[in-house]
Amino acid sequence: MGDPAKKAVWGLVVALALLWPATGSAAQGRSGKLDTVLEARSSSSGESQNVIIRTKPGRKANVTGKVSKRTSHYQVHRLIDAVSARLSPQQIDELANDPDVEGVSIDADVRASASTSTSSSDVIGDVKRTLGLGNWFTGASTAVAVIDSGIAPSVDFDSRVVVQYVFANARPGVLSAPFDDYGHGTHVAGLIGSNGSSSNNKYAGIAPGVKLVSLKVLDKKGMGKTSDVINALEFAVANRSIYGIKVINLSLGHPIYESAKTDPLVLAVEAAVRAGIVVVVAAGNYGTNSVTGQPGYAGVASPGNAPSAITVGAAVTNNTVARGDDRLASYSSRGPAWYDGIAKPDILAPGQALISNDASGSTLETDYPSLVLKSGSYKYLRLSGSSMATGVVAGLAAIMIEANQFAAEQRWQQLYESIKRNLRPAFPGVPALSSNTIKAMLQYSATRIHDAAGVTYGPLEQGAGLVNGLGAIALAYSVDTTKLAGQYWATFEMPPTTNFDGVEEAWSQTVIWGTRLLHGTSVVNLRQEAWAENIVWGTGEITDKIWATMSDDEDNIVWGTVADEDNIVWGTSVSLSTDLTWAGSALLEDNIVWGTAADWEDNIVWGTGLVGVFDGQSVIWGTCSGDEDNIVWGTLDEDNIVWGTSANKVSVLGTSIGGAL
Predict the structure, then answer these.
(1) pLDDT grade, residue 476 (50/70/90)?
(2) At the topology level of CATH, where does 20-110 sit?
(3) Longest Cα–Cα distance in the chain
(4) Is the CB of residue 497 less than 8 Å from the CB of residue 506?
């Protein structure tokens, strides 16, 4: 088959594709419109299910009328074409066969679980330094909507928790005094925007002046429903002007049960991005098999598979500013995203043993006293996970937006500096940085990290690399958003390196745009049409002034499809027979032999080889072992990913993972 460093080996996502013919054929008896959970349940269970019915465009009113005749427990979603309801299996099947219905999805449990790790590592006191940040910007002009378990009052938030709404039982939000009975949301909010007053700035957040809009969707156990998260997203979009919401933080999720094209939570996230809000999402903590200790791929949770979301994985900084000892957190979910093979995560951020605000009396504080730190009369929590990393990036996005607006106002003042202050025209404002632009800047300025053996992590593990706060802020500050697409918009050039503790770290200078790796200064120096709000990440056109991998060159990524339009595989041609051998002898190191399609019905592949490495201009999917012991992730049980293949399941939410979502 040739040198694996020169050929893209697509075995992993071929295995993912094998899942689809099995589930697709089973679905034909009931219209093929049900997700995998409903397909498995509704035919054998007489219990009613909470579901989300997606309607065809312009048919929502028709479907709502049909749902209302079957149940009084329903909710119409305005952000997406969907209706949530509790229905019997028979009613679900009836609606799935209705021509006005696009599909039916389980109203899945979403969760954010706290780590029970007792690590003594103290990172958050230096988190700004690990990102190369000073105290130049506070995010005071921006509000971040924290969709989580609530935010408890604290002197560290002073009066900046401007409002809290509680979403439950698929109903519109109810105004509430700020509180957090689980503790996760308060911790994340502290990472985003604590002013550090209780700790003399030791545990200050990334954007200490940012306003916080608390949208509570998780209960005291850290659990909630997808429909409630969609309602919270809808609230954030509808009230973005009232509260100044420019960033949404989603440190929660559920396993992926269907394509990103049909997943209601993904659709809601994409709608929020189209409305001009930066949505930052946790990749998940399903990166390691808790039984075997082996790394697993395709563990990204929904809505981390949303193409336009900024999906964040977790890194371990080992409590140093220097990046030579920074590592991928073992629990951090690796890509590609289930079903669609979307390259995720987008970026890494510090996420291990971060110290932040505690919610007094919360479940996390009560159940895990070893995680509580006391300093004087104040208490803090030490938590780990992609949840924490997501909060760091959400705060960074807020100060990137502020830096860009501040630079625009400076340019305006310089333009009219010769005019007396009282005669100068008022600053009219400029277009805000789009989510796509912020993601591109985060990726381009990121620094790649490597494992203990010096092997650089691949893009399915670290995305473009570990977030570089100073580089991202510099890029945001430098661009003039009044420029048109195709024009140079950078106001000054900068060397593509950042100094961390005396070491100059090179930027990745790479943007992972769909199936292409974009390189060159024009990625950020030119305003790209593809960075616009109305472009789904990975689908827009990139100016030809950027060098990018594309076409059918064997060294580059080719995203092909098979005859069945619902199945996407990596590569240009593949046979989805019962037994699939990828080109050539299975004895060759760079070839893969997969088992029967039935074996993959509910399982995700665990690989022992390299999957996803940079080869200068290509993303290469490496080889995985064909050993049966290495190809088991687990089965779907209820709404959770269960590790292992026997009934003796190991919880992903306990001490075995060592990280919160």
Answers:
(1) very high
(2) Alpha-Beta Plaits (3.30.70)
(3) 79
(4) yes
Q: How far apart are CA 33 and CA 262, in angstroms?
A: 10
Q: Is the dihedral of CA 558, 561, 562, 568 positive or negative?
A: positive
Distance, in Å, from the CA atom of 93 to the CA atom of 167, rounded to the nearest integer, reads 28
For residues 453 and 432, give the distance between their C-alpha atoms in angstroms, rounded to a whole number.
Answer: 42
Nearest C-alpha neighbor of 362 from the set 388, 389, 381: 381
Give which of 324, 402, 375, 328 is closest to 125, Cα–Cα. 375
CA distance 438 to 515: 19
- Give the integer Cα–Cα distance in Å for 459 and 448: 9
The CA distance from 400 to 393, in Å, is: 10
Instruction: With beta carbons less than 8 A apart as the criterion, state whether 437 and 526 touch.
Output: no
Amino acid, single-letter form, for residue 643: W
Q: DSSP for 136-203, please give it.
A: S---TT-EEEEEES-----TTTTT-EEEEEE--TT---EEE----SSSHHHHHHHHHH---GGGTTTT
Position 277 pLDDT exceeds 80: yes
- Residue found by looking up tokens 């092997």 in the block: 455
Residue 574: predicted pLDDT: 23
Dist CA 69 CA 101 (whole Å):
15
Distance in angstroms (rounded) separating the CA atoms of residues 471 and 443 = 10
Angle, nearest 10°, between helix axes 226-238 and 264-274? 10
Per-chain mean pLDDT for the chain:
78
Pairing label, strands 143-148, 211-216: parallel
What pLDDT score does 624 carry?
A: 34
Instruction: Kindly list the catalytic residues.
Output: 148, 184, 387
Please state whether beta strands 547-548 and 516-519 pair in parallel, antiparallel, or not at all (unpaired): antiparallel
First CA to last CA distance, the chain: 39
Fold assignment, 127-403? Rossmann fold (3.40.50)
Residues 365/381, Cβ–Cβ less than 8 Å: yes
Q: Where are the domains of the chain?
A: 20-110, 127-403, 435-548
Q: What is the mean pLDDT of residues 150-159?
A: 96
What pLDDT, on a 0 to 100 scale, did the predictor assign at position 526?
86
Q: Give backbone dihedrals phi and psi of 387, rounded to 5 degrees, phi first.
A: -55, -45
Give the pLDDT confidence of 92-122 residue by residue, as tens digits: 999 999 999 999 999 999 998 655 555 554 4
Q: Are 352 and 124 in contact (CB under 8 A)?
A: no
Q: Give the CA-trace dihedral at 44, 601, 112, 208, to 10 degrees.
A: -140
Any idea how long the chain is? 661
Average pLDDT over residues 26-37: 66
Give the pair of three-digit tokens for residue 571: 């590569």
What are the residues whose beta carbons fall under 8 Å from the beta carbon of 289, sequence distance 6 or more?
295, 296, 606, 632, 633, 643
Q: Is-cis flag, bond preceding 369, omega within 30?
A: no
H or E element that contains 257:
none
| Half-sphere exposure (Cβ direction) of 571: Cα atoms closer than 13 Å | 19
- For strands 82-87 and 101-106, give the pairing: unpaired
334 within 8 A of 460, measured Cβ to Cβ:
yes
